[in-house]
TrEMBL record:
<dbReference type="InterPro" id="IPR003691">
    <property type="entry name" value="FluC"/>
</dbReference>
<keyword id="KW-1133">Transmembrane helix</keyword>
<dbReference type="GO" id="GO:0046872">
    <property type="term" value="F:metal ion binding"/>
</dbReference>
<dbReference type="GO" id="GO:0062054">
    <property type="term" value="F:fluoride channel activity"/>
</dbReference>
<comment type="function">
    <text>Fluoride-specific ion channel. Important for reducing fluoride concentration in the cell, thus reducing its toxicity.</text>
</comment>
<comment type="similarity">
    <text>Belongs to the fluoride channel Fluc/FEX (TC 1.A.43) family.</text>
</comment>
<keyword id="KW-0472">Membrane</keyword>
<dbReference type="Pfam" id="PF02537">
    <property type="entry name" value="CRCB"/>
</dbReference>
<keyword id="KW-0406">Ion transport</keyword>
<dbReference type="GO" id="GO:0140114">
    <property type="term" value="P:cellular detoxification of fluoride"/>
</dbReference>
<feature type="binding site">
    <location>
        <position position="78"/>
    </location>
    <ligand>
        <name>Na(+)</name>
    </ligand>
</feature>
<keyword id="KW-0915">Sodium</keyword>
<keyword id="KW-0812">Transmembrane</keyword>
<keyword id="KW-1003">Cell membrane</keyword>
<dbReference type="GO" id="GO:0005886">
    <property type="term" value="C:plasma membrane"/>
</dbReference>
<keyword id="KW-0479">Metal-binding</keyword>
<feature type="transmembrane region" description="Helical">
    <location>
        <begin position="33"/>
        <end position="53"/>
    </location>
</feature>
Amino acid sequence: MDEFLIISIGAVLGANARYLVNGWVINRMGNSFPHGTFLINFTGSLLLGFFLSAAAEHPVINPRWYLFIGIGFLGAFTTFSTYVYESFILLYQGQWGLGLLNIFNSTALGIIAIGLGFFLGKQI
């Protein structure tokens, strides 16, 4: 039962962080392209790569941090389902260039961010 509470607290914080970051980005860049989701997916991937590699390098890190950060916070913060939905809507509306740009960039930069975070995490 303790694990569910740890994950839940992380998820509440991650979902609220996603909401705040997305709103901040929309206020600055508008909503013609899902910049907020794009930024959230990139930073979430970077943080997950960093955290998981750092935890692997330092096994003394309490496994509850994995539940809180890896599953709870970052699981709720990153927005894969939103990214797929926004990409679909762009394609559905005939905005093929923007839709494909979002799909390609989010995937490619997500992989790059995971790798970057992973290697940074190994350095600590």
